[in-house]
């Protein structure tokens, strides 16, 4: 039986970590993810877990400690946000290229500068090519559930990649909401024990991890990482199937909300998808055929599946909570557009940069996007595909 | 959305408006509702205006924006009436609950034509009487529960007894005073 509770997003993640009871957690505090190691350290102090908690002096060290722990053969977790992730930068790539299946919670926040502690996705978008599996979470429930599934995905022998679980800073990390928790024993059984095949502390098999890798091998190793990322799709689907059997909660690469018979749709990630559902319901009541595609699995990117799911639409808007500052749209837009083009689907598409630095995204904002889409659907034309949503008029120049 | 109550809190940093919104979420959760409780995080300085929010619903809540058209507004500090547009977007079918000793005439003047119901409570007097110190959040919690009809007086008192035991595990001596503050507030909140 699931347990009815109310927790913030950060509490939900810390609770999942308690139930997973990893061997090592190394973390350095940074808003808005600070509460995750804070709550977790109380579990360590109270003896609720037997994790080795490493209170490091920086995020670079946090990631390095997780790499060391995971390479030694243990299960490691961490959490960070924005500039904390920036300081981890070189180690992020090393974790994935050494094929160390650790799990990190990224509580999304704007990367400075100027200094801003609020939510957008610029931290996550900065590491989208770093070789980590990236799962996004609409609310506390999905952040919790993604954590329960993450280790089995990461540690699968066909994958062996680290997993990053994203949720929106403050918007979900600090909002108390209802949640269904699973019992400790059930989680323990579902997550299972970690038995690495190769690890540094195996005295029967002395190995080196991360030595020099020059022209003759690096390319092949990168191709193997790419292959592992493709394999991850199957594993993510299998783990979700088992998870659904256990909890009744269904997870796919993305969620299609009233998309089947929709004529216009929004593609977005994290908490904005919840606000969009609210607007879709209101529009449906007025007879507007609006739908939503909420991306959960951003890396690997479900390119064929997305192209198929959007192929019947008359107009699509992709919302990016991070500006690539390239004059040519956000990262999610590029991925969705390229998926559609490669699949030969010609649906008018438009991009909105929104919610930067914690700018609140209101239901009215989302409704205005659907209004724009209705017009595009009528004419089949997109005047300017690169737009802003919620930007104060006249202040951008 | 049907069966959804939206509440906005206005307070000053240090008065416990955030805590009150979280306690309200807790109490409503315990009656079987779906809830949200979240503050709007800004520069967290003692005395600076702060806003916090609650959504309480019979159905799952997916919307994740701030609240712009609340059913109820709670004002924990009446000096905010001049500093903040507390009735912005407030539905006239709803109500505003203010911690104040100001006269109805002055309040109506300060609320600039708001035509919905206005409730007042002297949370300072209640808090001093019950706790010996000024913590307006507990009386304001009781006041909004009563005005918005979130639950019965008995259910609130029963539920908060449990919450206070947990919240004040390290200083149990304040539990009785907080319970008294709730009881007084339930009696003294008045419509003007």
What does this structure look like?
By secondary structure, chain A is α/β, with parallel strands linked by helices. Chain A folds into two domains: 3-247, Thiamin diphosphate (ThDP)-binding fold, Pyr/PP domains (Rossmann fold), CATH 3.40.50.970; 254-389, Rossmann fold (3-Layer(aba) Sandwich), CATH 3.40.50.920. Chain A is built from twelve helices and 15 strands. Chain A starts with a strand and ends in an 8-residue tail after the last strand. Chain B is α/β, with parallel strands linked by helices. Chain B has one domain (4-191): Pyruvate-ferredoxin oxidoreductase, PFOR, domain III (Pyruvate-ferredoxin Oxidoreductase, domain 3). Chain B contains seven helices and seven strands; from the N terminus they run βαβββαβαβααααβ. In chain B, strands 2-3-1-4-5-6-7 form a seven-stranded mixed β-sheet. In chain B, helix 1 packs across helix 5 (137-148), helix 4 packs antiparallel against helix 7 and helix 5 (137-148) packs across helix 7. Chain B is globular, with a radius of gyration of 15 Å. Chain B starts with a strand and ends with a strand. At the A-B interface, strand 8 and helix 9 of A face helix 1 and strand 2 of B.
User: What is the name of the CATH architecture of the largest domain in chain A?
Assistant: 3-Layer(aba) Sandwich
Binned, the helix content of chain A reads 40-55%
Number of helices of chain A: 12
Count of beta strands of chain A? 15
């Amino acid at each position: 039986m699931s347990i009815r509770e109310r927790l913030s997003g950060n509490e939900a993640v810390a609770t999942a970590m308690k139930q997973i009871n990893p061997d090592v957690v190394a973390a350095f505090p940074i808003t808005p993810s600070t509460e995750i190691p804070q709550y977790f350290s109380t579990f360590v102090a109270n003896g609720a877990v037997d994790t080795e908690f490493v209170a490091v002096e920086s995020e670079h060290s946090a990631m390095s400690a997780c790499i060391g722990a995971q390479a030694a053969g243990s299960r490691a977790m961490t959490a960070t946000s924005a500039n904390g992730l920036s300081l981890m930068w070189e180690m992020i790539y090393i974790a994935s290229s050494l094929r160390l299946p650790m799990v990190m919670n990224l509580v999304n926040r704007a990367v400075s500068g100027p200094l801003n502690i609020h939510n957008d996705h610029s931290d996550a978008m900065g590491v989208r090519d770093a070789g980590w599996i990236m799962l996004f979470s609409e609310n506390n429930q999905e952040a919790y559930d993604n954590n329960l599934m993450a280790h089995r995905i990461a540690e699968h022998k066909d994958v062996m990649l680290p997993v990053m679980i994203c949720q929106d800073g403050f918007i979900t990390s600090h909002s108390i909401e209802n949640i269904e928790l699973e019992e400790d024993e059930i989680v323990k059984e579902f997550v299972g024990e970690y038995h690495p095949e190769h690890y540094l502390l195996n005295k029967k098999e002395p190995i080196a991890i991360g030595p020099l890798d020059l022209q003759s091998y690096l390319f092949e190793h990168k191709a193997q990482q790419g292959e592992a990322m493709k394999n991850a799709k199957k594993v993510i689907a299998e783990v979700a199937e088992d998870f659904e059997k256990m909890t009744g909660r269904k997870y796919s690469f993305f969620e299609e909300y009233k998309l089947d018979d929709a004529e216009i749709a929004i593609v977005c990630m994290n908490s904005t998808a919840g606000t969009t559902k609210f607007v879709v319901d209101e529009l449906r009541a007025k007879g507007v055929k609006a739908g939503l595609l909420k991306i959960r699995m951003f890396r690997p990117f479900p390119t064929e599946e997305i192209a198929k799911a959007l192929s019947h639409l008359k107009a699509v808007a992709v919302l990016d909570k991070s500006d690539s500052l390239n004059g040519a749209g956000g990262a999610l837009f590029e991925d969705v557009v390229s998926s559609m083009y490669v699949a030969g689907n010609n649906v008018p598409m438009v991009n909105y940069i929104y919610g930067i630095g914690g700018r609140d995204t209101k239901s009215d904002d989302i409704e205005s996007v659907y209004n724009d889409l209705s017009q595009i659907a009528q004419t089949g034309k997109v005047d300017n595909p690169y737009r802003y949503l919620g930007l104060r008029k006249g202040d951008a120049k | 959305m049907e069966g959804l109550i939206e509440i906005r809190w206005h307070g000053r940093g240090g008065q416990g408006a955030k805590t009150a919104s979280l306690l309200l979420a807790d109490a409503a959760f315990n009656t079987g509702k779906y809830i949200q409780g979240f503050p709007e995080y800004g520069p967290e300085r003692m005395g600076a205006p702060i806003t916090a929010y609650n959504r309480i619903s019979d159905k799952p809540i997916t919307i994740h924006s701030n609240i712009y058209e609340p059913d109820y507004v709670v004002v924990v500090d009446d000096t905010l009436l001049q500093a903040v547009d507390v009735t912005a977007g407030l539905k006239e079918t709803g109500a505003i609950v203010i911690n104040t000793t100001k006269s109805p005439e002055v309040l109506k003047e300060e609320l600039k034509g708001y035509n919905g119901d206005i409730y007042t409570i002297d949370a300072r007097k209640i808090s001093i009487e019950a706790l010996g110190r000024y913590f307006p959040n507990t009386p304001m919690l009781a006041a909004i529960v009563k005005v918005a009809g979130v639950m019965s007086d008995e259910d609130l008192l029963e539920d908060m007894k449990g919450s206070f035991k947990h919240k004040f595990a390290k200083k149990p001596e304040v539990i009785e005073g907080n319970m008294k503050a709730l009881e007084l507030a339930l009696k003294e909140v008045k419509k003007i």
